[in-house]
């Protein structure tokens, strides 16, 4: 080993073990905080944690569990553990007493395995919780026993029912909710959105779920030019490139809950399997959902409530095809039916 390689190795080790030591110290501070809370309760309350840290669509889908846990333990002090970037989704929840925005998987592992929580509802899948620096893994033993992994979870049901199984809770169907405050509503008020509005979301963090850019352009033009709708695109980055006055680019400008409020004000939500579709389910906007084969899941259902049963959603898919391969003519024809019939219930196909 030459000198440069030797220095790089020891620099890597120094950074890794300094990080681990720091996380242990910070975990002790968090454990002390929750221990002090327990002492202050004097046995009158149980300290309970719900653990679902990401992704934001999963957190929205898991929201009914907060109400379910509260119903089971009405006097408990309930803590939701989440990544900082998604904190807004649970910090206003009326059944959540505190949100712990975990700094790292390692620190979360140390706190959760300390025994400070008297009851832990772990909604994470087996094999999905590795700290990238320390390489420690926070394991969900219940998910392991039930063989719920990142590779097979949609074989077990929709996301809500899977989370309930991971947490050993009764499997009950319920629609998710989001809690939007006046500040976020006022931010959306300032947009002065048109009444005849469709919100679209065109791209995910996983290209296999996406429909083609060409098809999105064609659909958007049809909605604007032939159907007379304004079309607002949401997401991190816009897919549609047009100067048409009925197109509104709202990408990358709003928080998650502000985006939910934008969706709530639309006549329809049209999108792929992604976080914003879960927001649409939560705010009750009719959804037209473009689906396809995902990895080894030929047909799967992420949603609960009226998106699951088809009362407030139309799911368009073709057997054996990915979303990218969905035929534009089929999507247009199904949407034509929806535009004519809503508010009647749609049929999931």
Automatic annotation (TrEMBL):
<dbReference type="GO" id="GO:0005829">
    <property type="term" value="C:cytosol"/>
</dbReference>
<dbReference type="InterPro" id="IPR051199">
    <property type="entry name" value="LPS_LOS_Heptosyltrfase"/>
</dbReference>
<dbReference type="GO" id="GO:0009244">
    <property type="term" value="P:lipopolysaccharide core region biosynthetic process"/>
</dbReference>
<dbReference type="InterPro" id="IPR002201">
    <property type="entry name" value="Glyco_trans_9"/>
</dbReference>
<dbReference type="Pfam" id="PF01075">
    <property type="entry name" value="Glyco_transf_9"/>
</dbReference>
<keyword id="KW-0328">Glycosyltransferase</keyword>
<protein>
    <submittedName>
        <fullName>Glycosyl transferase family 9</fullName>
    </submittedName>
</protein>
<keyword id="KW-0808">Transferase</keyword>
<dbReference type="GO" id="GO:0008713">
    <property type="term" value="F:ADP-heptose-lipopolysaccharide heptosyltransferase activity"/>
</dbReference>
């Amino acid at each position: 080993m030459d000198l440069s390689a030797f220095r790089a190795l020891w620099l890597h080790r120094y950074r890794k073990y300094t990080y681990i030591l720091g996380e242990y110290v910070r975990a002790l501070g968090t454990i002390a905080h929750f221990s002090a809370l327990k002492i202050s309760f004097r046995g009158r309350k149980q300290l309970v944690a719900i653990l679902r840290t990401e992704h934001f669509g999963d957190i929205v889908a898991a929201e009914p569990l907060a109400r379910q846990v509260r119903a089971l333990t009405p006097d408990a002090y309930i803590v939701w553990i989440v990544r900082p970037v998604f904190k807004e989704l649970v910090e206003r929840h009326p059944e959540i007493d505190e949100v712990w925005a975990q700094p790292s998987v390692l620190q979360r592992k140390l706190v959760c395995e300390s025994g400070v929580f008297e009851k832990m509802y772990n909604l994470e899948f087996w094999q999905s919780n590795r700290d990238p620096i320390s390489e420690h893994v926070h394991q969900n033993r219940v998910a392991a026993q039930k063989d719920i992994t990142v590779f097979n979870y949609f074989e077990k049901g929709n996301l809500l029912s899977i989370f309930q199984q991971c947490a050993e809770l009764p499997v009950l169907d319920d629609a998710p909710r989001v809690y939007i405050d006046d500040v976020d509503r006022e931010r959306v008020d300032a947009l002065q959105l048109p009444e005849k509005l469709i919100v679209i979301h065109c791209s995910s963090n996983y290209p296999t779920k996406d429909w083609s850019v060409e098809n999105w352009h064609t659909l958007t033009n049809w909605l604007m030019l032939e159907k007379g709708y304004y079309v607002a695109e949401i997401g991190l980055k816009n897919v549609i490139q047009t100067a048409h006055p009925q197109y509104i680019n709202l990408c990358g400008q709003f928080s998650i809950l502000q985006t939910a409020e934008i969706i709530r004000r639309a006549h329809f939500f049209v999108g792929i399997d992604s976080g914003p579709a879960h927001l649409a389910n939560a705010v009750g906007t009719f959804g037209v959902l473009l689906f396809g084969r995902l990895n080894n899941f030929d047909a799967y259902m992420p949603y609960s409530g009226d998106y699951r049963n088809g009362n407030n959603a139309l799911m368009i898919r073709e057997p054996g095809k990915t979303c990218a391969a969905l035929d534009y003519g089929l999507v247009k024809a199904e949407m034509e039916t929806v535009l004519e019939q809503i508010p009647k219930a749609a049929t999931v196909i």
